[in-house]
Write a structure and sequence with these properties.
homodimer, mainly alpha, Arc Repressor Mutant, subunit A, Four Helix Bundle (Hemerythrin (Met), subunit A), 2 domains, DNA-binding
DNA sequence: GACGCCATGAATGTCAGACAATTAAATGTC
DNA sequence: GACATTTAATTGTCTGACATTCATGGCGTC
């Protein structure tokens, strides 16, 4: 009996009702909800309560509100971008709040990422390979900040997962990769380690080019092991400090 | 000029401010936010506006509110369960709203799920194998409804991903598997197809038992192909109707 | 008739003030 | 010390008002 929630608030209940209407298809994308005043009357609550319920739904991108005449609350079309942004927020918080070891997080991330190698090798396009090559160039700049290096790293891996040519897969993988970024940002990348990583990135691109699944997979495995090593040395440095 | 967002509402801005405080670590888990009245004064807005902002954050499970003296809004500890529930809501909506072909969704789901096979074979426990066996028994009941069959299927696959012994991986995979459930529910499972699926489930368990990665992987691949076939025949049946 | 301007009305966004409900802590009582 | 009562702080809800936004339609001018 962890969560009694003795008296769930009216605004929460109303939000749940409307959410169910949307998720279960009784309200379709683009549909306009009744006005706040109408909802208030229909459910026997005040307008303030209705508004709190609507704000809850808006926070989950389930609805969007427009002002002015013929404005109101509309069932939102959830785009991949919005969905991914939400997933990243949630996952980032989850990772940050649960004392998760760097190793476990890394293991999960690379396990997930490797799930796209076979499709990626099969379907990779020249455009995406070019994107990856450009990111490698960016990463090679000697005066690049650690943050910029990480950002380019994320962009590289996003291009990699996009190679699989499956939007749904890209959505899930990009979310999990991005959620790792704050953890990755703890690492200070020396020139030595950057060179190592860039070499592996090159191996990945070259593997995709030759549609050589095994070599891409091997490069990712090596990258995982290397990243974990880096993470552990950071942790050791902190512990002795 | 699709989204000007000319005047973001005060409650949205305030929510963003507090969200940043949480995500960027200025507010830690368990911290208590100032009372609504104090927040209203601090930010020069009314209490109603503050409340709308707080409801937005509560909808994302970033905070939780308690009533009574010494109650208030507290930075929430995001559990795996809450995080997964949110991810499922988002992903389910994304799949439902974007005219995604069953095949693409299925391909993504199984690609992701197969990312845990190697770890699962290595780390599977007897307890989890037992869970999987029990679900297989449930699925074998001849008078089982389609919904119950699907639910047991989800439970089976959740146990499978849990075998990998990595919480983070389980969180991501369970989310993507569950999000597929509404799509799976469209399928009517004949006795013939249930038998086929159960056989493959048995193959998975037996493969894990023997720590035979390749055979688990093969069973999942077959399951993917078979599920896609089933999905397509449903679509054809609908088209000719 | 065509064009631009403005009033109108409907809706959301915000505010102020009040009261109800809840709950932990302080206080009183035995 | 154990138990009942009061108290104060805080969220939850309601009411009524006003501000702001914006599509529509009417009006006047050319």
């Amino acid at each position: 009996m962890k969560n009694q929630t003795s008296t769930p608030s009216l605004s929460a209940t109303l939000a749940d009702t409307i959410r169910a209407d949307i998720v279960e298809g009784r309200l379709l994308v683009g549909d306009r909800l009744p006005s706040e005043a109408e909802l208030a009357e229909q459910h026997g609550v005040s307008r303030a309560t209705v508004r709190e319920a609507l704000k809850r739904l808006a926070a989950q991108s389930l609805i969007r509100t427009e002002r002015g005449a013929f404005g109101g609350a509309f069932v939102n079309h959830l785009s991949y971008e919005e969905a991914r942004a939400q997933q990243v927020t949630t996952s980032t918080l989850l990772l940050g709040m649960n004392a998760i070891s760097f190793q476990v997080a890394c293991e999960a991330r690379y396990a997930l990422e490797r799930s796209c190698t076979s499709l990626a090798a099969e379907r990779r396009t020249d455009a995406l390979l070019d994107t990856m090559r450009k990111e490698i160039e960016t990463q090679s700049a000697p005066d690049l900040s650690d943050e910029a290096f990480c950002a380019s790293d994320v962009a590289f891996h996003r291009a990699l997962v996009d190679c699989a040519g499956n939007e749904v897969l890209s959505y899930h993988l990009a979310g999990s990769v991005e959620a790792m970024q704050p953890l990755m940002n703890m690492i200070t990348f020396t020139a030595r380690s950057r060179a190592e990583i860039i070499d592996l990135h090159r191996a990945i691109v070259s593997g995709l080019e030759r549609r050589d699944v095994a070599s891409v997979d091997r490069a990712l495995a090596t990258l995982e092991a290397y990243t974990i090593t880096l993470g552990q040395s950071v942790l050791k440095a902190r512990a002795t400090r």
